[in-house]
Amino acid sequence: MSTDLNIPNQNTCSHPTAINGENPISNEQEHVHNKLNGKVNDIVATLQKGKGWRGPEIFLHKGFWLPQMLIKSLLTIHEYFHPKPNDIFLAAFMKCGTTWLRTLMFATANRHLYKISDHPLHHTGPHSVFPSLDVQIFLDQYSVSKFDNLPSPRLFATHFAHDLLPTSMTSSSSTCKFVYVCRDPKDALISKWHFMSKIRSKELTPISFNEAYELFCNGVSEYGPFWEHVLGYWKASQESPEKILFLKYEDMKKEPSVELKKLAEFMGVPFTTEEEEGGVVEEIVKLCSFENLSNFEVNKDGVQMFGEHVAVENRNFFRKGKVGDWENYLTEEMRDRIDSITETRLKDSGLALGLTQRA
Ligand code: A3P
Description:
Blueprint: H1 27-45, E1 49-52, E2 55-61, E3 64-66, H2 68-80, E4 88-92, H3 98-109, H4 133-139, E5 155-158, H5 167-170, E6 177-182, H6 185-199, H7 209-217, H8 226-239, E7 244-248, H9 249-254, H10 256-267, H11 273-277, H12 280-287, H13 290-294, H14 297-301, E8 303-306, E9 310-313, H15 332-346
Parallel strand pairs: 4-5, 4-6, 6-7
Antiparallel strand pairs: 1-2, 2-3, 8-9
The chain binds adenosine-3'-5'-diphosphate (A3P).
Adenosine-3'-5'-diphosphate binds next to helix 3, helix 6 and helix 13.
GO molecular function: sulfotransferase activity
Enzyme class: transferase
InterPro entries: P-loop_NTPase, Sulfotransferase_dom
């Protein structure tokens, strides 16, 4: 499979694609597209610029760093996306376990439809099982209505910070739910550096680890700062636990069955006693395990298209799948700096994350 991926420059907002390539873009749609692009250009002109990890610049929008394309997505979500009462959004900072959670949520919600031995995950990339709101809405903002045809509960993934999303999704009166997964920021940094390096344009000089480390610590990172992202969802989960399930990658690695049962309960599809006794929980855990998924052909050789032009090889979503890989990259000084930022930022929040156990 070719590794010559065609990822558009995120600093320009490309033209929308016709739905399934069949419907020509109407004058009205063209008008909306131009209006949105105009708004985005006006917004971006006022924002502080930063260095994007995969090349294009990123902009500090309402406290979070985003490429221009994602500012347009956000605007589109605010203007065109209509949440339904039982929608469930999987949210996470980049590289904190979205791929894993996607498969677990999909397999759990649809467990009555598919046999494990012949499950769609055997031949479907994890990012195809339900839409990424951030990307899909940007590429197809005129076909938001096609989301209406998704089976209920509709599942979506997003990396946007809680504070950036519309209140129709986040307010306590909305009945949408969020599953948030977070991770030790040191592991998120390592994972993100590897991932962004792989999808970075080959025409650019690679981003060095030290450079990525500095940017991450300074909060200059797509969808970042990491800590504010986590805190937004954490605080909301404390205020409305029935609306936001807050999970940690490390807990999931340690006790996947326990965490999966929590997830199913939260999604409104708890495992029955018969299912538990019949081993269904363990079957889903095994199906979605790193070892299993990463060995499927589709995840070794397949490519995930995010619309017409954005392609990422599925193998890039699976690296090591381990807790604590940061030990292979960070010096003691680097580790202490991230731990100390984490301690300071999360102070008094009641959340402990990734602090290194010292002897
Ligand atoms: P590493 O780079 O540390 O290996 P995301 O899915 O949010 O992009 O996060 C990617 C991280 O999750 C990567 O971490 C990847 O290897 C890991 N991952 C992917 N699938 C997984 C699975 N089924 N179980 C555990 N970890 C998984």
